[in-house]
Amino acid sequence: MCSPTIPGSHVSGNKSLPDARLICNECISWILERMLSKMMMMMEVAGSYGDAVVGIEQP
Q1: Could you tell me if residue 4 is inside a domain?
Q2: Residue 2 lies in a domain
Q3: What pTM was estimated for this model as a whole?
Q4: How far apart are the C-alpha atoms of 55 and 12, rounded to whole Å?
Q5: How many domains is the chain built from?
Q6: Domain that holds residue 26
Q7: Which are the contacts of 8, defined by CB distance < 8 A and separation ≥ 6?
Q8: CA dihedral (20, 22, 25, 30) positive or negative
């Protein structure tokens, strides 16, 4: 099982730089899913806010 954090980032000095940059596919897909859901939520909030503003401005 892969944790969503970058492997080796919490280990000090034990790992070389390339190892710390390796992220397994599950982590990448997890991060992408999180980013996508956040973007969708922000777009929904912005859309509903825009509708409210348009409703207020128009008679």
Answers
A1: no
A2: no
A3: 0.41
A4: 55
A5: 1
A6: 17-57
A7: 14, 15, 19, 20, 22
A8: positive
pLDDT digits (tens, 9 = 90+) for 18-37: 544 566 777 888 889 999 99
Q: Is residue 43 part of a domain?
A: yes
50/57 Cα distance (integer angstroms): 11
User: Which of 55 and 37 is assigned the larger pLDDT?
Assistant: 37
């912005």: which residue's tokens? 46
What average pLDDT does this structure show over 14-20?
49
Residue predicted with more confidence, 49 or 44: 44
- H or E element, residue 38: helix 25-57
Q: Please state, in angstroms and rounded to a whole number, the distance separating the CA atoms of residues 2 and 22.
A: 11
Q: Which residue has the tokens 């190892």?
A: 19
Residue 25 identity (one-letter amino acid)? N
Give a yes or no: residue 9 inside a domain.
no
